[in-house]
Design goal:
The chain is α+β, with helices and mostly antiparallel strands and 288 residues long. The protein has a domain of 187 residues: Aminoglycoside phosphotransferase (APH), C-terminal lobe (Aminoglycoside 3'-phosphotransferase, Chain: A, domain 2, Alpha-Beta Complex). The protein has 10 helices and 10 strands. The strands form 3 sheets. It has a 5-stranded antiparallel beta sheet with strand order 1-2-3-5-4, with helices on one face. Helix 6 runs antiparallel to helix 9, helix 6 packs across helix 10 and helix 9 packs antiparallel against helix 10.
Length: 288
């Protein structure tokens, strides 16, 4: 890995032969990708190397949408992003701290995060079409197992019900996992725009709730702080999109466990199966 990281930094003219002798690195983690902190004395960079992403990510769209989001001052800049390989290099920010799902219990941090999300949804910017949660499960679901056939049926049913509602076209992040919110000093930012696209903001809300373990009380607080009207149609959209988030990311995790050799396969499969089962249960027991 050391040689690979040095080669990447050389390709972007960020390191020379002399600096290579004092080069150090450490793994920072990641789910879709793996990031590394690289250090050679004078400069430190974070290098993101994409993993196996199941062909759901359009890196050219990610690049353009990240640049668009930069204009809203809701995200952090990068130095380089290769739209062909997905390799991204950013200046290391020592003060940066990633959220955990528990940070959404902190009202000050939560409101700062929601302000950035609202700024995105309420802007007149238009993202390049990229990941579509209403199409993704069709690419991920398998036909050979009755369990996945049920997931296909439920996913299709959710999409049919959503298409009966008024769906908006807004710039959306679409992967609101806690780690994609970061704190830098006194402010909060959104990072990692791989799945960003035009879509309905209620998928972002449902995804936020699913990925960060929001209970019913936290959801009500979130909608109030986000300034979202809780009429009947919006309530239906929120619940259906949350089910769709469970289903889509559950299928993603199960499929990733079959093709990515750098992850804990058993854990990914377990989490994915639990999310799929939760989506099916919620749909079969919905109250509308």
């Amino acid at each position: 890995m050391k040689e690979q990281l040095i080669t990447i930094l050389e390709n972007f003219d960020l390191i020379n032969k002399k600096q290579q002798r004092q080069f150090r690195y450490r793994k920072l983690g990641g789910i879709t990708n793996t990031s590394y902190l690289t250090d050679f004395g004078q400069e430190s960079y974070v290098v993101r190397i994409p993993g196996v992403n199941l062909d759901l990510i359009n890196r050219a769209a990610e690049l353009k949408n990240h640049l668009i989001a930069n204009g809203l001052k809701i995200t952090l800049p990068f130095l380089y992003l290769d739209e062909h390989t997905g390799i991204k290099i950013s200046q290391y920010v020592p003060e940066l701290r990633s959220f955990s799902y528990r940070d959404f219990n902190n009202s000050e941090l939560r409101k700062k995060a929601f302000e950035k999300l609202s700024r995105l949804h309420n802007s007149d910017l238009e993202f390049i079409k990229n990941f579509s949660p209403m199409e993704a499960f069709l690419e991920l679901v398998e036909n050979s197992d009755k369990f996945y056939e049920k997931a296909r049926f439920v996913g299709n049913s959710i999409v049919i019900e959503l298409n009966k509602l008024t769906l908006n076209s807004q710039p959306c992040h679409q992967d609101l996992y806690s780690d994609n919110f970061v704190q830098v000093k006194d402010d909060v930012y959104l990072i990692d725009w791989e799945y960003s696209s035009q879509g309905d903001a209620f998928f972002d809300y449902g995804d936020l709730f699913m990925q960060n373990k929001f209970n019913d009380s936290m959801k009500e607080t979130a909608y109030k702080e986000l300034g979202v009207e809780r009429n009947t149609e919006n309530q239906m959209k929120g619940e259906l999109f949350e089910m769709l988030s469970f289903l889509t990311w559950g299928l993603w995790a199960v499929n990733k466990s079959k093709v990515d050799y750098d992850i804990s396969k058993e854990e990914y499969f377990k989490v994915g199966k639990e999310r799929i089962e939760e989506a099916i249960y919620r749909y079969e027991n919905k109250l509308f």
